[in-house]
Design brief:
The chain has 220 residues and is α/β, with parallel strands linked by helices. It has one domain: Rossmann fold, CATH 3.40.50.300. The protein is built from 6 helices and 9 strands. A 6-stranded mixed beta sheet has the order 5-6-7-3-8-9, with helices on both faces. The chain has a 3-stranded antiparallel beta sheet with strand order 2-1-4, with helices on one face. Helix 5 links the parallel strand 6 and strand 7. Helix 2 packs across helix 3. It is globular. The two termini are 26 Å apart.
């Protein structure tokens, strides 16, 4: 694939919830392109619209005005979203949760389990493989959610506050794994965070306030 391929593009895309006086604008008109080599941090406080922007990029929400377009080369599992909140299926073990996207994509259970175990090892959670979500902490669940996305080897990784529930050392380890995996599989990486230290690890930073994405700050 060409190194400068645009995977997802927003053209004056906005997202509003509700109507009339009760309407809330989560994302104001945003123009943004995510290319195959991008490492982008979107920085801002809770409620600034970061999660809504990721949902637009992922296709979980449709813009109420403007456009979001995705490359025709992207398959159904080529965009991986690491959710900020709880996203594990309670009835499945940790490794089954991590393997689920691969099983849904048609991989054999054996292959899916091997890939899931490798991804869990990347984020330091291999020892949790046979536990149920109720048996692990919130921070551990966040690592498993990251492993679930890494196991599917997407071309675009969208990570919503992936270190927000982790201590500093564990958060740094998970971010190391995301960056290394993105480099290894040739994926673009977009991380939302309120932590300047996390943002500093990515090559481009953009701030978001009150639903508005500000101009980029490139890191040399």
């Amino acid at each position: 694939m060409p190194p400068d391929e645009v995977l997802v593009a927003c053209q004056d895309a906005a997202l509003t919830f509700g109507e009339g006086p009760q309407a809330v604008v989560a994302v104001h008109g945003t123009t943004l392109e995510i290319g195959t080599d991008d490492r982008l941090a979107v920085v801002g406080p809770s409620g600034s619209g970061k999660s809504s922007l990721l949902h637009l990029l992922a296709g979980l929400e449709q813009p109420t005005s403007g456009m979001v377009t995705r490359s025709a080369s992207l398959g159904p599992y080529d965009i991986g979203l690491i959710f900020q909140g709880d996203s594990l299926i309670p009835a499945l073990s940790v490794v089954e949760n991590a393997a689920l996207p691969l099983v849904l994509a048609g991989r054999s259970e054996r292959e899916a389990r091997q890939a899931a175990l490798a991804a869990l090892d990347l984020v330091g959670a291999a020892d949790l493989a046979d536990r149920l979500p109720e048996e692990i902490s919130g921070g551990q669940a966040q690592r498993v959610a990251a492993a679930r996305v890494l196991a599917q080897a997407p071309r675009l990784i969208l990570a919503d506050e992936p270190t927000g529930r982790l201590d500093h050392a564990t958060g740094a380890h998970v971010l190391d794994a995301l960056l290394a995996a993105a480099d290894h599989i040739g994926a673009a990486l977009v991380v939302t965070t309120h932590d300047p230290g996390v943002a500093a690890r990515l090559s481009v930073r953009r701030s978001m306030h009150d639903g508005r994405l500000l101009a980029p700050e490139e890191v040399s």
